Fold each of these.
Amino acid sequence: MLFKDKQLDLSTPCVMGVLNVTPDSFSDGGLFTNVDSALRQASSMLEEGASILDIGGESTRPGAQPVSDQQELDRVIPVIEAINKELDVIISIDTSKAVVMREAIKAGAHFVNDVYALRGEHAEQTVAELNVPVCLMHMQGEPRTMQTEPVYQDVVAEVLQFLQERANACMAAGISPQQIILDPGFGFGKTLQHNLALFRALPEFIKTGMPVLVGVSRKSMIGSILDLPVDKRLHGSTALASLAVWLGASIIRVHDVGPTYQAIQMVMAVRNFSGRV
Ligand code: 9MG
């Protein structure tokens, strides 16, 4: 897939490192809120094997409060400019606001990661005009309330249908099908059972023919199963990243780049080994 001037071969799974520049993000809140610390973190994620860095200025954790356009711009633009100047990496902008998408791409970001799947005002047209790839994620509800009793008749069928409909709407707005990535949205308006059902159904998402992004790093589904706090979920996260890649996911969004990158390399060595000896 072409990310502006940068080509990334998604037939080999790649790691997207999370770089939140918010004071209240879900698992690393407040760590990277100035340009220097964000740049240091970006550089170390790149050394550890990240192909993409996902930069977000508004937390999407359960219960998170929205921020204004200007606050979000003030947080992300200087960081994107610095990373784009200093490092050779694909930058994604994690936002749902058309104005932030536009300014971030102008500042050097290469693609849009939208947890609202471009349902916001002017979002579809903006991405079509910017002519960059986009990740469309499923979410039931909104971050502030999404974990209060999410309900589905058939979670896999409903999430698949939502993503297909959003992809169709984006294509009708002028976004190329070659620029669309899908994401079931683990933890976004889903119980543990919903997340497990979606995870087992990853091959059905991959059958759509569009690359699939999986983000489960440090999330509550791991906390519930292992009964561990957010800072102790590395092994659970790495196990799920390995499984996602085995099932065909193309992009794995994580906080812990090095361990995930190594785990993926091992999975791919087994997957790509053909023939008997
Ligand atoms: C911003 N963000 C937080 N979690 C995410 C996930 O699972 N997928 C995507 N695409 N973005 C996410």
Amino acid sequence: MRILGIETSCDDTGAAIYDSAKGLIVHRLASQVDLHRQYGGVVPELAARDHIRTLMPLVDNILHSSENEGKKMDAVAYTAGPGLSGALLVGASVGKSLAYSWRIPAVAVHHMEGHLLAPMLEENPPPFPFIALLVSGGHTLLVDVEKEGCYQILGQSLDDAAGEAFDKTAKLLGLGYPGGPAISRIAQNGDPDRFHFPRPMVNRPGLDFSFSGLKTHVRTTAHALQPEGNLDDQTISDIALGFELAVVDTLGIKCSRALKQTGRKRLIIAGGVGANRRLRDHLRRITADIGAEAFYPRPEFCTDNGAMIAYAGYVRWKMMKSEKPETSMNQKQASFDVKPRWSLEDIQQGVDCQR
Ligand code: KG4
Ligand code: ZN
């Protein structure tokens, strides 16, 4: 079966085609980074308007690509949440309308399940069960994954998500948006011994995270050095590295704690911050030290993309098949309901999980 995947939850317009027999056929991404950069962050209304402009040409492009060979789709998957409501509505209305006109099922996908399943698109996919560290702009989650559809949240951020902390810290250092790649780029020139920032919540039991105090600590440090904000380039690099090391170390401590507590032997890392080189190297080292293995999607499948939505849509479609999805337009299908706030644990309904 062939499934079209559509991603519009935030500031990337993504579209992809996944084939259950052949794997990923084609994927394309239109980033809105240049649009939002001048405002220092994502402007929701502009994001939605840009998805409207970009999505249909992008879908048209992959459907008529040489890779797709003119093949018809068997289902359409779209991100239904969590995310920005206006942005989500664009993908939902296009996805549902295409499915209706082609008389095929429309599959609503949870954005974080997309991230969680992204490593399955790689050559060496992790076998179930595993622990997933999902680190994006809006979420930091540690999830025990028993099998497809069975997700137990072990820990999460109580305030800023890891990506959000990168973005806010970059902003206060004058590094612009998006903050994660900017911080890790400039941190390469940093001195690792100049600043040692706190590792939040590592001395308390449990697997929750809190990054807002770390961000405040960086602000206080920067202000104490230069109240006017004119930090020299070397100091900015040193602070950026101190911050990056604190986040990476904190995530590492929680991941090894989660592996030890659950006895799981595999860790997957996904979501935008999962593209961070220092984090990938560190987690590979600490999993090896405790006899576990780390898996990641390629960096372009860590950040938002249509491929992960097509794949997660295929997984959901397999679950829906037993429920015989309707392909004629009923009242539920006719509504473009999206879920800007939506817990990953809520999509477990109907799946036979062991716990
Ligand atoms: O998953 P994602 O693309 O979008 C959301 O679902 O939020 O994640 C975006 C986040 C942003 O906060 C961005 O700064 C961060 O991922 N990010 C990174 C890197 N690349 C993207 N953070 C650290 N290092 C990176 N290389
Ligand atoms: Zn995301």
Amino acid sequence: MSYFDGKHAVVTGGGSGIGAAIAASLVSAGAAVTIMGRNDDKLRKVADDIGAARELADVTDREQVATAFASAVKNNGCVDILVNNAGMAQAVPFAKMQDELWDQTIAVNLTGVYNCTRVVTESMLAAGAGSIVNIASTAARTGFAYVAAYCAAKHGVLGLTRSLALEFAKKGITVNAVCPGYTNTDMVESAVENVIAKTGRTREQALAEILKSNPQGRLVEPEEVADAVIWLCQQQSVTGQAIAVDGGEVQ
Ligand code: NAP
């Protein structure tokens, strides 16, 4: 019997990229998995493919989050594992930052983590068990130019992770973060396109610029992030940690 048998895992942003890889790994490990996101077509494709349930929710909308989690719990039982993975990033010089972009970046990447964590807290406390894994970023551990809002949000995720780890330390709940470097998903593709549009570089040049940041000279694969999540879920004495999956980029 696997550690994950009989456990219900929710993965936000599970309809693509890192979230889809995490959801697939959790299903393979034996968990019942619900993926959440805003785009039902994306969710349905991944859910059908891997054998997961799906719920529509914008993580910034507390009513939608409450409804989606209530439905997920009705279908698959209380949430044992929460992976807060939904996120977005848009690069812009700080002097050109629009208030809307700042607000949206904090709402999705930081408040979204709060919203989803808040709705599972009571049942995890009542069960005296639970794993919460927040997909942060290298941008949670160091600053990067042109993504101030994203860095601020991801640093906030790490602060939340560390505080909750202490608060729940004697309650059977672990709270950790995984901090990927540039990972092979649509998010990096958008970053490449952004560099091409802003600098006129070729795709190869833009990608090479991004790869420079990784000492291994390659993108992280989504499955490598998923491996860290699977490992963290099974640890009882690892909590409050920021696990880097970044080829040695941030030390
Ligand atoms: P991605 O493919 O763009 O995935 C992001 C996911 O988040 C999408 O499935 C999207 O689904 C969902 N999402 C975005 N806004 C949402 C909202 N308001 N409510 C609910 N879901 C929302 O990018 P990814 O690379 O897999 O990113 C996953 C996580 O890894 C993010 O937290 C990101 O910050 C982090 N990360 C990525 C990298 C990288 O280089 N790729 C590096 C470090 C950290 P919908 O659009 O359907 O809602």
